[in-house]
Amino acid sequence: MKIYSFIIILFITQFSFAQNNRQNIRGVITDKLSQVTLPGAVVQLVNKTANKGTRADTHGNYELKDISPDRYEIKVTYVGYKDVVVPNVVVTSGKETILDIAMDENVTSLNEVVIHANTKDKPINNLATISARTFSTEEVNRYAGGRSDPARLAANFAGVSAPDDSRNDIVIRGNSPVGVLWRINGMNVTNPNHFASVGTTGGAVSALNTNLLKSSDFLTSAFPAEYGNAISGVFDLGFRTGNTQKRETTLQAGVITGLEATTEGPIKKEKGSSYLVGYRYALAGVAQAAGINIGTTALPSYQDLSFNLNSGNTKLGRFTLFGILAESSITISGGNSGSIYGNGSGHDLSSKIGIIGLRHFKQLNDKSYFSSNIGINYSKNDQTNDDFDRLTSTTFTKEDIKVAQTGYNFSTSFNSKINSKLFVKIGVQDELIGLNLYYKQKENIKADWNQIWNYNSYTNLAQAYAHLKYSFNNKLTLNAGLHSQMFFLNNSASVEPRLGIKYDINGLSSLSFGYGLHSQMQPVNVYFLQTKNADGSYIYNNKNLDFTKSHHLVLGYDLHPFTDWRLKTEIYYQSLYNVPVNTLSSSYSMLNTGASFKTDLEDHLTNKGTGKNYGAELTIGKFFSNGYYGLFTASLYSSKYKGSDGIERNTAFNGKYVFNILGGKEWKVGSDKRNKISVDLKYTHAGGRAYTPIDLTASNSTGQEQLSANAYSAYYPNYFRLDFKTGYTLNSPRRKLSHSFSLDLQNVTNHKNVFSQNYDNRNRSINTTYQLGFFPNFIYKIQF
């Protein structure tokens, strides 16, 4: 804490006392495909009485100066390009607004026809045809119940559910959360969450600092050829560039995100180089002292440091050094049978994350560029679990787990806009995976230890892809590609075609179709589960497992019936095969991995399982304008699988339906209307998760939890939650300074949503554990 206090004092010394609360909007205008800058592009504020405008300079840079704190709509025009309209641009007195804008070139010359490209309609990745959604940090922080977490924001989108209040795992169209790929600044990364464990994609608290993120993409199906080793979805995130002209500071305190300090500014203004650094330290102890139920009586500790250092443009190109360093720990002694964390047993958990990458961008000419990454992904998880031995009435150590994974990553891509119709992207990726796995367990206090993992070695996953985008005209666009990958541990290989077609019907509506074959290696720990032979030697029965594979088919319709309104619907079918199941007749399937905290310990697996997901989705949204927004999403779906016994069952993620309603209103207040009050509401209603009932008689007989033979035959009660958030933003009348306060009341009705059921060996009964109840999350932020 001494170091943190020093950082705070250092930042406060940077405070600016300029007697002017107006700010600037600036950025760079580029061609979306070639990344070349567009000098002379016209940038205008179009929704205010006193319109302001400017032109981009010879390097594509623009600046709108002396803008009063408010929300704005910006329009960009350039000869030969589609007009771009950027709604809901927020300006506060405490910070400049940096807004880079990419434009699409017109394919054909049009007479008396104006084509507008609203940035809220399209993903940042211009090669994504369908099932893709861009989101901004303003949305992450605005929505009620979001905890400043991108993964929890995604749970508001159609086709997505987050059935676990204790973790931010997300279920996409009935798939396991293990099927999600995370990417930061173009580099595939490990699980970027606190209290993460190897082989998972979620955690209790996000290690992603939203004050460093820029607008990013979330893809749920049939994604472009550049994305591999994922069968569910993709989080394609980016760190924003620090301010290249002036030093700025953000200080923040929140129940979930903790104490936070972020600083940014130029390194050398003339080169356009900059730094952006943010540090956070947990405040969970303060929340507990205030009587807030955070799901455990133990004290969780976590902290993270994120950074993005930008070299600016040099003769060798532009270099960006970025990363996340995070650690977390918690010790639960005995726990509480009704607690999400604990369940009556003792747990000692610690984890570390290290993500460091160097990104290089080199513009070759006005048509082509190279983009490359080299980096390290490190994750370490140590866990000790205790249990109660009924015969001796004592507690003993049941599991001892030490897992570390290091990934050495390299990727590069060549991107070329051949002409206004044709764009080509070719790339390769390679990851050298270092593993150190150790896991032993025993059933009772007198039993011998059983060694599950004891492995220290390396393996390799290589990927390559090619993608082309061809626009026949301004209405019809084709995206086609091929992705391939090889896992060198057992020489598993996959070749995966991708296809996307979009047809703009009349400027207000469009039809889209997507197909993709996707494959994913198994959670890396599964390959090294070891079985002890009679002679004392060990064998790895899972080492030759192939990729799990999936066919995605999606059809979508998009309509803009009114200004700032959007209606979108998609229907999809997903066929999964090559799924690991038991060699003997069993209901087990890897498609259910991630449904609980328990590690998969099945060591006799074969790729003979199947699964299918299908459903329909609807999104009706009103973008933020005229002081309010609204969003309704609905998903109806089915998720089934077959194990080695050939019986079709529900997957653990077959909730059948999810409905979300979100809305918010903002009022300008104060004598000059520079401040604002906001309220936001979120309502979620989802089907209960499928689960396997506990066989109480068998459990009492053995002293260990025994499940029914009817896997996933029962359902928990339906999930219901109502969140309410209110906020106040104060923009200083004389200084470049802003304050914001928000109170996010989560589960305001204190509804008891079932989390899980477990066998209590002490009381010989079945305990029901509930999700988090009423949870108030307060956040204060100051920017200067």
Give structural notes.
The protein is mostly beta strands. It contains 5 helices and 47 strands. The radius of gyration is 26 Å and the shape is globular. Residues 1-18 and 110-117 have low confidence and may be disordered.
Shape: globular
- Number of E-state strands: 47
Q: Helix coverage percent of residues?
A: under 10%
Gyration radius from CA atoms, angstroms: 26 Å
Described by strand count, sense and barrel closure, the largest sheet is:
22 strands, antiparallel, barrel
Structural class given helices, strands, pairing?
A: mainly beta
Strand content: over 45%
How many helix segments?
5
- The low-pLDDT segments are 1-18, 110-117
Task: Give the termini distance in whole angstroms.
Answer: 23 Å
> What's the mean pLDDT score?
89
